[in-house]
Specification:
CATH superfamily: P-loop containing nucleotide triphosphate hydrolases
CATH class: Alpha Beta
Strand content: 15-25%
Number of strands: 5
Largest sheet: 3 strands, parallel
Number of helices: 4
Shape: globular
Strand order of the largest sheet: 3-4-5
Distance between the termini: 61 Å
Oligomer: single chain
Order of helices and strands: EEHEHEHEH
Radius of gyration: 18 Å
Helix content: 25-40%
Number of domains: 1
CATH architecture: 3-Layer(aba) Sandwich
């Protein structure tokens, strides 16, 4: 049915910036009708987020990932979440070969962007710093130092 029941929020710091990360309801499948609205109200927070991290278990069979991905995309569409906010996090890099990751990425139809698709391993810490950097870039932008003369009126 689902993988996470409740939402929890943590503070993450990266390069001097602070981000609030909320872990919401996980994959939803075959829910009784009376529960769907409750979970959608929890997920409504996504529409207010600067960035949505959609975490996928890349070690699962491709068919299972496609089913979960399509369900998540459908729900985000229904909630009015722009797909331009979504960063696809392919977790469990430690359990799969690079060739399998590439094959599954193609089968999933994921964007070809290093800022929109990030392969990580939460277990080993692989590419976690890259994920933090991308979050900072997408939320804060790429701040450039002021060069030249600044006047006040």
């Amino acid at each position: 049915m689902f993988t996470t029941l409740s939402t929890f929020t943590r503070l993450v710091q990266s390069k001097g910036t602070k981000h609030l990360i909320s872990d919401t309801v996980g994959f939803i499948s075959r829910l009784p009708a009376y529960m769907v609205d409750a979970f959608k109200s929890t997920l409504q927070e996504l529409s207010y987020s600067a960035v949505v991290l959609l975490v996928l278990d890349i070690s699962e069979p491709a068919e299972e990932i496609v089913k979960k991905l399509n369900s998540c995309i459908r729900i985000m569409y229904e909630l009015g979440v722009p797909m331009t906010k979504v960063v696809y996090i392919l977790n469990k890099a430690d359990l799969i070969s690079v060739e399998d990751v590439e094959d599954k990425s193609v089968r999933l139809g994921l964007p070809h962007s290093k800022q929109r698709v990030i392969l990580i391993s939460a277990k080993t810490g692989y590419k976690i710093d890259t994920l933090k950097d991308v979050m900072t870039l997408l939320v804060v932008g790429d701040p450039k130092p002021l060069i030249g003369e600044v006047s006040s009126y």
